[in-house]
Structures are given as C-alpha cells and as structure tokens.
C-alpha cells in the first residue's frame, strides 16, 4: 500500500513514483488506484500512454481486469510537457515504450511541483532493462516492484516470457503471446 503525501499541506514540491514489474503483475491496477485517490482528493490529474498501445482502447488506460481511466495517447515524451498545464498529478502507463526523453520530462515535471506516477515493464522478454525504465527507476523518489504469479509453478514472477517466435522488441500482446514466470521457470524454458 502506497501512502501519499499531502500535496497541499506540504507546499508545492513534486516527486517521481515508479511502479515496475512483469506483465500481469498489477502495474496498471496500482497506477489506476493511485490516480483515482488523487482525483478523490480533488487534485487535477492528467494521464498519458504511448500512442502505439492500442490493445484494449485508443484513449483509455485499461488493466487486464478491465478497469480503465481516460488518457491521452502521445507520440513522444515531449508532447507530455505541452499538455501538462496547471496539473497536480501526472500518470504515465506503458513507460517502457517511450523514448529516453521521458526521463528529462519526468524530472522537469517533478521539479515544477508535480507528482509523477510512472508504470512500466522493467524488463523485456529477454530479461533486459526496457527503454527509459532503468533510468526512471534510478531517479525516482519512490519505487514499487510488483509481481505476477508464475504460470508454471505459482511462485512470484518477475519475467515476461514470450510464447511466440518473434524477435522484435516491441510486440503488443496478452496471454496468448506472453506468460509471467519466476526466475527458476524462466531459466528452465530458456535452456530448452
Ligand atoms: N499470472 C498472473 N499473475 C497475476 N495476476 C494475473 C495473472 N494473470 C492474470 N492476472 C490478472 O491481471 C491483473 C493485473 O492486471 P494489470 O494491472 O493490467 O497488470 P500489468 O499492468 O502489470 O500487466 C491481476 O489483478 C489479475 O487479475
Ligand atoms: C515483455 C514484452 C512486452 N511487450 C508488450 C506486450 C504488452 O502489449 C505490453 C506490456 O503490457 P502490460 O500492461 O505490462 O501487460 O508490452 C513488448 O512489446 N515487448 C516485450 O519484450
Ligand atoms: Zn515458476
């Protein structure tokens, strides 16, 4: 459970929160939970996602459990800065798909007094750090690593194993294309 500071009583200072983990680990659910609570607190919230993420909806951030919130799809991280006038909280989903400029954008927003909440895959299907996520994890004030359930053994999973024969880094997908695995099961499937 993440406990929010009170933006108003603490004065105008910003910070970066990162929610990271494998696919199906609850990143989007946790992002939505934090954003809904900010809205309940009457804070002005803007939510962004990369324009390529159109799995469930063009304009919404949608979790695997079908919870959703309206968002603005953007082509580059720079567009986020242009769309953040007078906001208290900025939410960004699928951060791994953004360009490296997202790091500077998040820093700038936090420096301006905005609470920035970023959710994304920390590793790609090869187990390598994904896009701007490692840098964001390094500079964030608060980091939450969430875990899925391993589809082979029921342990905690931190890897996203690709089930189809495709080598390109970006390939949108769901349960047909990916399964979350623990370290032992991920090592076993990659030995074969
Ligand atoms: N193997 C799994 N481990 C955990 N949750 C799973 C799994 N498969 C499906 N889910 C569902 O996915 C939900 C999390 O969805 P979501 O927040 O969209 O995850 P993420 O954004 O990390 O991919 C869980 O609440 C659960 O109902
Ligand atoms: C591991 C991995 C994933 N992807 C894609 C697959 C999904 O469309 C998203 C992740 O969505 P989620 O909300 O975290 O479930 O990313 C990819 O393109 N490349 C990869 O290596
Ligand atoms: Zn396992």
Automatic annotation (TrEMBL):
Catalytic activity, reaction form: thymidine + ATP = dTMP + ADP + H(+)
Main subcellular localisation: cytoplasm
Residues annotated to bind substrate: 170-173, 178
Binding site for ATP: 21-28, 93-96
The protein's Enzyme Commission number: 2.7.1.21
Gene Ontology BP, a term: DNA biosynthetic process
Gene, per the UniProt record: tdk
Lineage top rank: taxon: Bacteria
Residues the record lists as binding Zn(2+): 150, 153, 182, 185
Subunit structure: Homotetramer.
UniProt name for this protein: Thymidine kinase
